Amino acid sequence: MSGKTITRADLAEAVYRKVGLSRTESAQLVESVLDEICDAIVRGETVKLSSFATFQVRSKNERIGRNPKTGQEVPILPRKVMTFKASNVLKNKIIDAHKQSRGD
Amino acid sequence: MIKSELVQIIASKNPHLFQRDVENIVNAIFDEITDALSQGNRVELRGFGAFSVKNRPARAGRNPRTGESVHVEEKWVPFFKTGKELRERLNAD
To answer: Which residues contact B77 (CB under 8 A, 6 or more apart)?
Structure first.
């Protein structure tokens, strides 16, 4: 387990390597893929990427929270959050790869 | 929105590309993220969010129906934290 951090640049590099567009265009396409997903989520759509994951928006009700430092009660306002649900394909790939690298 | 719809949107905005190419581009992106997580790496996409893998140690679980004690194996689960910009856009109004 190497513990690196992958960024947009690495994704663009993968597109460049696998699809054969220019580096500039690869980077632009990575950006537009992420933008389209964000826009759909902000519109309230569920985004399903088969064999990867589902992104969904959930509305949270107001609830009473507590400042853990001061113990003071504060209202947490109603808000929207995005949830990520990994597909079984993704979950199994991750588990298998980690088990293998551990040698069982 | 499903993956094929995402491909269509991107293809319609890039008329010089074949739909087949756009499919390969979208797959390349998510395959790369999958590979990174499989190798135990983090994927950080500013404005969107960050993917990481969390380790869940083996534990003694219980069958809720029978109360029987069962061994739950160690596992690694993908985790996602929504980026600041997207979180703010979701609550813009």
So the answer is: A86, A91, A94, B53, B54, B56
A75/chain B closest Cα distance in angstroms: 16
Q: Give the Cα separation of A21 and A76 in Å (integer).
A: 47
Query: Judged by CB atoms within 8 Å, which residues 16-55 of B form the interface with A?
Result: 21-22, 24-26, 28-34, 36-49, 53
B36-74 tens-digit pLDDT: 999 999 999 999 999 999 999 999 999 999 989 999 999
Residue ranges covered by each domain of chain B: 1-41, 43-92
Q: Report yes or no: A63 and B73 within 8 Å, Cβ to Cβ.
A: no
- Residue numbers in A near B49 (CB within 8 A): 82, 84
This prediction's pTM: 0.90
Residues B43-92, CATH architecture:
Irregular (4.10)
In terms of domains, do A29 and A56 share one? no
CA torsion sign, A56 to B49 to B9 to B29?
negative
Per the CB < 8 Å rule, is A47 touching B26? no
Which residues in chain B are contacts of A15 at CB distance < 8 A?
25, 28-29
Which pLDDT does position A2 carry in this prediction?
A: 62
User: Containing domain of residue A38, as a range?
Assistant: 1-43
The CATH number assigned to the domain holding A95 equals 4.10.520.10
Q: What is the ipTM for the molecules in this complex?
A: 0.89
pLDDT, tens digit, 9 for 90 and up, residues A49-83? 999 999 999 999 999 999 999 989 999 999 999 99
Q: Which of A39, A77, A95 has the most B C-beta neighbours within 10 Å, making it the best mutation to test the interface with B?
A: A95
